[in-house]
Design brief:
The chain contains seven helices and ten strands. The protein is α/β, with parallel strands linked by helices and about 240 residues long. A six-stranded mixed β-sheet has the order 6-7-8-3-9-10, with helices on both faces. Strands 2-1-4-5 form a four-stranded antiparallel β-sheet, with helices on one face. It is globular, with a radius of gyration of 17 Å.
């Protein structure tokens, strides 16, 4: 693994709302993700996992603490710079897919490249290649509504990977997949994480994929309560 961490979080807090209706999602998170590492985040629903990866992916701003991603201080970035940083460096797989219903799969996947200014033919060629990687080459012209949930998930994963991001963040990427397809997707994600200077953080409840992790961080009530290699944490949670 490279010496520089992909993510270095210290004392992260995040509260939604204020007064009696305030909900504290993160309560002083300390977490480091090394380059070349696949880290799984596990824990009960509502414990702060999705909030944490949203902060790491520069989608949400944290309240207190420090979060450095790829050596950049997220808190110091103005909004425009954060958008450009996220566009160029981060791939995010949303649990709800967030595909554009009116666009075929290949155009959905090509969106990150088009936003970077790649030509339309080059973006589509890269999108077709990425869809083939996730086993959907023959469905590249299908609209999201014509695809199963598992197929839509794979389109979302292809979209997150197509621009070769240095950090990939996934929210339940195998939740809609059968075991064989889930293994195929995790193998692909792990290969991405192993590339120099890259890292991968995955939120999951799917114990079938625990063996793919380098480490598993267990969360509860907005805190990281344990972290270690898959057998140690998986057996405890």
């Amino acid at each position: 693994m490279d010496a520089t961490p992909v993510i270095e979080a210290r004392g992260l807090t995040k509260t939604f709302g204020s007064g009696p209706n305030a909900v504290t999602a993160l309560r002083g998170i300390d977490l480091q993700v090394e380059a070349g590492e696949l880290l799984l985040l596990v824990g009960p629903s509502g414990c702060g996992k999705t909030t944490l990866i949203s902060v790491m992916a520069a989608i949400l701003r944290h309240d207190q603490g420090r979060c450095q991603v790829l050596g950049a201080d997220l808190a110091a970035m103005p909004d425009r710079e954060r958008v450009a940083f996220r566009r160029d460096n981060i791939g995010f797989v949303f649990q709800a897919f967030n595909l554009i219903p009116s666009l075929p799969a290949r155009l959905n996947v090509a969106v990150p490249l088009l936003l970077q200014g790649r030509s339309h033919p080059a973006a589509l060629a890269a999108a077709d290649a990425m869809l083939a990687e996730v086993g959907l080459g023959e469905r590249r012209h299908a609209l999201p509504g014509q695809l199963s949930g598992g197929q839509q998930q794979r389109v979302a994963i292809a979209r997150a990977l197509v621009h070769q991001p240095r950090l990939v963040v996934c929210d339940e990427p195998t939740s809609a997949l059968d075991h064989a397809t889930g293994e195929q997707v995790m193998t692909l994600l792990r290969a991405i994480a192993r590339q120099p200077g890259r890292g991968l953080v995955i939120v999951t409840h799917d114990s079938r994929v625990f063996h793919h992790a380098d480490r598993i961080a267990a969360m509860d009530d907005g805190r990281v309560v344990g972290i270690g290699p898959p057998p140690a944490v998986a057996s405890a949670h």
